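Quick entry, no commentary yet.
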Amino acid sequence: MRGSIADFTFFFGRNVIEWYENDREDNLHMDINQKLTEELGVKRWQVDAAVKLIDEGNTIPFISRYRKEVTGSLNDEQLRKLHERLVYLRNLEEKKEQVISSIEEQGKMTEELRRQIMAAETQVTVEDLYRPYRPKRRTRATIAKEKGLEPLAAYIMLQNAKEPLENTAQQYVSEEKGVKSAADAIAGAEDIIAESISDNADYRSWIRKTTMKKGKVTSAAKDPEAESVYEMYYEFEEPVSKLAGHRILALNRGEKEKFLTVKVEAPEEDILRYLEKKIIHKDNPYTAPVLKETVEDSYHRLIAPAIEREIRNELTEKAEDGAIEVFGKNLHQLLMQPPIAGKVVLGWDPAFRTGCKLAVVDPTGKVIGTTVIYPTAPTTPQKIKASKDLLKKIIPKYHISLISLGNGTASRESEQFIVELLKEIPEEKVQYVIVNEAGASVYSASKLASEEFPNFDVGQRSAASIARRLQDPLAELVKIDPKSIGVGQYQHDMNQKKLGESLSGVVEDCVNKVGVDLNTASAPLLSYISGISSTIAKNIVAYREENGRFTDRRELLKVPKLGPKAYEQCAGFMRIQGGKNPLDMTGVHPESYDAAEKLLKKQGFTPENIAGHHLNGLSLTIRDYKKLSEELGIGEITLRDIVKELEKPARDPRDEMPKPILRTDVLEMKDLKEGMVLKGTVRNVIDFGVFVDIGVHQDGLVHISQITDRYIKHPLEVVSVGDIVDVKVMSVDLKKKRIQLTMRGI
């Protein structure tokens, strides 16, 4: 090759040869955008456009909503996946560069090795290829090399020995170098060979694949007599290839809590035969037994522990990714629950000894009163009567029509008390809802809560939060770290950074889907809007407090640190009710105002018609979207989005979700009978089923096999958090507090 390049240079000069070398280098580099195109199953131009927009600093919600034309309508889920993989592949390319540079510095780079590294598609493959060149701590092999035993190792590998190895090894015996005997010398040579076998990337890759395909994961109890939730794993085995994500996470936790010993059992015989075939290519009576022994040592001592670690890490990573995806979908459903607007709500934080904390919240979310009552144990008939008398005064005084009861400790007892009370005042027509209070205690003890309610104790803050999450779940839940909202299993075992990023992405998508009222939104809610950092969010609130209501979106540009780029990203998601320009109350982006105004004029309407909700039939007046979009100088997709927005200004996508079940009566677990059909709310979705709240304080489990008559891979194919479902009671175990439900055959 070099000869031909020299001739090439002679004829064409140095510039051409540099071009040739660079071009060859570029061909070796992974085409990241092409890889993303294949993985996402979309067109190359869509990926190119999305990557360019991301690199220019645009947020995912902004691209998904206002750059549909440019990306061919890639949705937020596709864009997040693209972004995640883009970061991974770019880091991979960076890693390759580092590895190549390190091997080049050692003067050991070959064309073939460079090609292999550049073609690698995972971090693991790059690590495998780098292993022989990685600077090592002193190993048995490096010590043997220091003793000058490499030539002996090379001699054994040639497999041409004509006499016993002890005779040849005798010449390497050296008191000075610490080689005391021929057996010592052979052992050192074996260590060198064992390490070189272990460092071979092809062998490791084959062993890893074979173990994944044919290996088993086993677990055993450290103490078979110990009672724990991991008893089903005390004698457990399952093929690596079939192990479900939730089982992997359960095994990991059981191991962490020292109940289980978990192992990966590899198909050892197959692996040893493979290695022997690769290493021993002559049936030499002097070298073959030694090499057979070395292969076994290399596998057991060096390869197997590393491969087991890698497989466990890979399984955990996959299981975590699956679980994080489920958490994300659950969280999305929880955040997108419809608000119950226009009602005065009594928030009820249940407790025993310290009393139940109550907070009355008006329809705008303002707390107008708080108190404590003692209707639950340890109590007295007098305290119960006093609690009832107080509530009988409060309910009509504030026109309370809804009680929002937290599902924490003493919720069951509080519910009994509420039902008794409501029977005594039927004329008030009060209903109650049990609300998932996950994260309320985290919020009430937070810095944010103490800023919001400086004069309240944690119980009063918690009661206010429980009331508000019924009025506007999204606005309230964004104040809580998404990881504390409690919508999944094994949350604390996850890679917290990855989990945090994923869930924050879900919150960001939800907040931007719904949009926020610029004049009422809190700083935490504003901080999730596209382009708005928490500092800018606080600056918006401070500006509002100082200058009064925003009357125009453009006013945002006067907020400190909110520049043109941030304005571009956030403006479309900020709503202003009753502002100077009616378009400010819609999801139409200011960059499209001209087009929207021309459209209205052309179809015989005015911007004032927006506020009056008089544009319901706007779409019916348009015969040819393509022609009209060309006349207005915008894309057809953008035109359709503008029309949709003008027909339903500030449309809330949450209105289409199922409303919570409002109750006036109560059931207890002992009231449940086999075959009973009940309505319930899906509280949590996990890999093997769904937990449904049927109003008895203990959620029932619908196993995945009982959700539907057809085969499904995951419950999320059929149900989501917040869904209202019909269920039938299959069995009730009062002692273990377990309720088995079915959704089939109802």
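second:
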Amino acid sequence: MRPGRFLAGCVAVALLVSCSKGFDPSDIDISVFGAGENWDNPGGDWAGSHYSRLGDITRENVAALGLAWDYDLGSNRGQEATPIVIDGVMYTSGVLGRVYALDAATGRELWTFTPEVDMQYSRYACCDFVNRGVAVADGKVFVGALDGWLYALDRKSGKVEWRADTFPDRSRAYTITGAPEFAGDIVVIGNAGAEYDTRGYVTAYDIRSGRQAWRFYTIPHDPKEGPQESRALEDALKTWSPTTRWDIGGGGTAWDAITYDPEFDQVIIGVGNGGPYARAVRSPGGGDNLYLSSLVALDRQTGEMKWHFQETPGDSWDFTAVQPMVLTRLTIGGREHSALLHTPKNGFFFVLDRENGKPLAINQMVRTSWASGWDLDSGKPILTPEYSDITTGPKLVFPAPPGARNWYGAAFDPGRNLYIASFLDMGNLIFLPPKSIHAPRRKLGLNAGTQSVFTPYLEAALPGLPMELQQAAQSLPQWQWVKEKPWSSEIRAVDPVTGKTRWAISRDGWQDRSGVLATRSGLAVFGTLSGKLVVIDTDTGKVLKQIDTGRSIMAAPMTYKVNGVQYLAVQTGWGGGGWGLVPEYSAAYAKGNANRLLVFRLDGGPVPVPPDLPPLDPIPAPPAQRPGVTPQIIAQGSSLFSQNCSICHSNRPRASLPSLQRMTPGTHTLFDRIVLDGLLLQTGMPRWDDLLTPDQVTAIHAHLIDTQRKAFEDQSQGRPAAKAVYSRISTSPTTY
């Protein structure tokens, strides 16, 4: 049991006395691996293993698994949380930081909490306004809201006990999408926003009062502003260029996967990418840029750094290290180690010693063009800048920004020594527009700098790219990779020490990735975007059962026991990175994206599958262009749309946000008020009058009228709709 969950369970007098005397890490039994009847944090147990010791649902009886109850989450956005169950009560989070408390046996609603979120912050959420879970301890439920407030709610009533403003500077585009983490008498939360203009940090708060205990910044500040906040940052400063663009922020946000390690009484954080992405823009002159894309261990009581390990030195490709980690013990080279398992975006599987951060094993899991391998002795990658240095021209870099791995939890079965997780093998044509190199900071705006096209779309998109980009892409050695295998996505069972795959199951598309649950009874469970809940044999990878839910699933399932009955639960809903484009193979495309919590048991009933959506309405005829609109203005609008809008608006059918190629006459009439005045702010459409002028909004509108006209003409003449070209930051990378 993790420390926060220890506190959550302080119901007996003896335990209450223990809690009143303060927290002792030795109270946590780290010899017990896996969750029991309770599932007391999003990762399940103290180790974050997504592994359950329950065994009532087995290979032999899983065919009888059916729906016990379900619950409407009241949203049509991304659902990434894994519920917590403690003593028969389920707690989970939804979009923006909503919290639900439910009877875990029946689904009866006990209470809900909806934070009063400033919806302007939806503009700064690069990947939908998702939330990845709650924490429960000290009679409270803790959740981070999108706009930066950390709430402590009474566990029985949902009443706010205290709240803390976690943002030190609201002139920067911070958000919260991750789950809090407990470490004894503190709760730790990070933040997101590295694509914008932020400087990363994590903050610890006293669980009883909400008073700040400590804060650790992940990267240095401008040395002209005075000494750094810690010795660790003074050391890190040496790895940044003297001409660093401190004005932009630097990035390094820790947006998820904060983990408490009770064995060494340390909080381990994964640090995100740099801002801007390219080191040549962010830190001209080079340097490793600590502690970007690193794992950092902090003393629980003081917040001082104990060790660090940088997984991607000098990151220029959005290779965050913020993916969930698993704590365990492994025998390597005849010696038992307290180990940390981590598979970040960059394509490698890291096994680190938790005592000192030294690498014990590193294995390549997908194609990587930025590095060919690792030197274990030095702890440094073998870099291949000839294939990845975007300052010398466009490059085909593998992996792509969605990463070989991302936020969805992996499961580790200690008895079988298997790490079971989704892996994506995909690259991108990435380039640095010349104008990005010396671009001024865009306050509260995207400052990523690079543009890219993902390899599943590259061959089809190539004729529409500037000739220079076409020629550059086809001349690169990795072009053969694109032709042979533009992508693959799999659920794999992997030996963490050797990196060898025991079995693999192919997914339906590159976006089809999800969290995994493993059980002692030899089952692994995951969901698909097509709406299937899949149960497989952990030993063989054989599919034992598929339940058609009619709802896209990304979040990791979990399991628990109430009154002698084992249940299995998962939240449904498509969103997150790439959320603006709903894949045609997904249930969200065919049946809509109404979010539900689904809970199963043996001898349960069928799942009510939603009906297919009706055919798309025809694209309406657009209005005439405003007087004075020229091709130059339309081209300017295209560039502005790519820079400001396309990260959310894919303009594809059935996306969570409306396709702006299908605007009605009324929407066209109100366009300026919507964009500049925030007419639809409360529905999630922020105002843009701080970044865009009326003339620029007119240009964007002219571009959208033009694209709607072309789509309307294609429709009228029976031509097929243009295929989607999805990329990172820009969906129209034509500004090279």
